[in-house]
Amino acid sequence: MLFGAARLSSTRATRTSSVVQCKATSNNKGGAGAGGRKQQLWSPRQEKVLVSPLDALNKSDAITGLTLESFDGVSEVTTKQGELHQIEQAKPSESFARKMYAEDCEAAVNRQINIEYSISYLYHSMYAFFDRDNVGLPGFAEYFKKEAEEERAHAEGLIEYQNKRGGKVCLGALMSPITEFDHEEKGEALYAMELALSLEKLNYEKLVGVHRVADEAGDPSLTDFIEGEYLEEQVEAIKKVATYVSQLRRIGKGHAVWDFDQSLAN
């Protein structure tokens, strides 16, 4: 019985193969028959594209191409890219780093930059005065030169902070400082040092103003920057210059001024 079943299955397979061959021969003859028609070229419209390769198992037509279903993650990535495009983008003229930086704080920092430069400019004028040959106080000249460089460094520090917060640095015009510091009653040394004390106190007052603006705007970064980098140092500078003023008032305009000048040089 098993042998008979095998023969029957083989016979059916042979018949099926013959039928397929007959159909193929018939189709070829139809393509180039007596009518002399040329075989029709392949056209994309005649191609049957299946959505899934599993459907090919249930189709008896010839498979000319397959289109696989899209990966599920692609739609998720596309959605996230769309969300990124909705994020507010800065204009070309605006900073990408700016965040919670009030315009009042930006303006206050710019004012302080100009104050630091103005004080530095005046200290430079003092340095040039005491370095004259007819004044001859190199210790005072060197002291005011260092003070000028220090105030300029303060201005540059504020510029760096302004850029770090995304603000725009606006430098104002500087007035020409005075060039003569002679004083008939006090003498040039005491007069210049009292002027320096006034400048240091003014600078402290302006720094406190910047701190107040930052505090009102709720900007802890700016308040911490002014406190840590400027206010404490300014307090020490005021104390040092105030001590020099007291000593020079005791000395007067006599020869002791030269001794004081040597102490500044050392």
UniProtKB/TrEMBL annotation:
It is found in: Plastid, Chloroplast. Stores iron in a soluble, non-toxic, readily available form. Important for iron homeostasis. Has ferroxidase activity. Iron is taken up in the ferrous form and deposited as ferric hydroxides after oxidation. Stores iron in a soluble, non-toxic, readily available form. Important for iron homeostasis. Iron is taken up in the ferrous form and deposited as ferric hydroxides after oxidation. Belongs to the ferritin family. The keyword Iron applies. The keyword Iron applies. Residues 19-29 have a biased composition (Polar residues). This is Ferritin. Its EC number is 1.16.3.1. Keywords: Chloroplast, Iron, Iron storage, Metal-binding, Oxidoreductase, Plastid. One of its GO terms (molecular function) is ferrous iron binding. PANTHER family: FERRITIN. Fe cation binds at residues 116, 151, 154, 200, 234. Oligomer of 24 subunits. There are two types of subunits: L (light) chain and H (heavy) chain. The major chain can be light or heavy, depending on the species and tissue type. The functional molecule forms a roughly spherical shell with a diameter of 12 nm and contains a central cavity into which the insoluble mineral iron core is deposited. One of its GO terms (biological process) is intracellular iron ion homeostasis. Pfam families: Ferritin. It catalyses: 4 Fe(2+) + O2 + 4 H(+) = 4 Fe(3+) + 2 H2O. Gene3D superfamilies: 1.20.1260.10. It comes from the Eukaryota. PROSITE patterns: FERRITIN_2, FERRITIN_LIKE.
